[in-house]
Specification:
single chain, 152 residues, 4 strands, globular
Length: 152
């Protein structure tokens, strides 16, 4: 087994434990008091395509807000290669989660006008040998937003 496969397996096994994920989220998510952590539940990733699964190792959790009005997804991902495409891969994962959840709402007979776009927080964990030298904030890699904002 290649080293990156061992790291990915370790990552999935560790963050697949609800208590580990809960502690991680609680220590890295500033608004954790707005979540009902008792509802934290591991989600399947079977809806994610094999191509995307090869790029990132990921664990997905869903939790209800404290006011019980919506779900929040946490995408915990692991990457061991220093890759400039990490933000794009995360965006693909986020988009897949949003599509999957919105389809599930429709399948559960939520009227189309009441379907909510879910909130998805991606956490990217890098464990490569060399220093990570790409944007650490997703917004840093979205230079096109500034381009559009300046022209509207």
């Amino acid at each position: 087994m290649a080293i990156h496969e061992e790291k990915n397996k370790f990552f999935k096994n560790s963050f697949g434990i609800k208590e580990v994920a809960s502690d991680f989220i609680a220590s890295h998510f500033k608004s954790v008091e707005n979540l009902n952590m008792d509802t934290l539940a591991l989600q399947p990733d079977s809806f994610i395509g094999d191509e995307l699964k090869q790029l990132l190792s990921a664990v997905i959790y869903k939790v209800r807000t404290s006011d019980d009005k919506r779900d929040v997804f946490f995408l915990l991902t692991h990457q061991s290669a220093n890759d400039p495409f990490m933000p794009v891969c995360a965006l693909q994962y986020v988009s897949s989660i949003m599509s999957w959840d919105m389809k599930a709402q429709i399948d559960n007979k939520v009227p189309r006008k009441d379907v909510k776009v879910p909130v998805v927080y991606p956490f990217m964990i890098y464990s490569g040998q060399e220093p990570y030298n790409w944007p650490k904030e997703f917004s840093e890699s979205m230079q096109w937003l500034a381009f559009i904002k300046d022209r509207t």
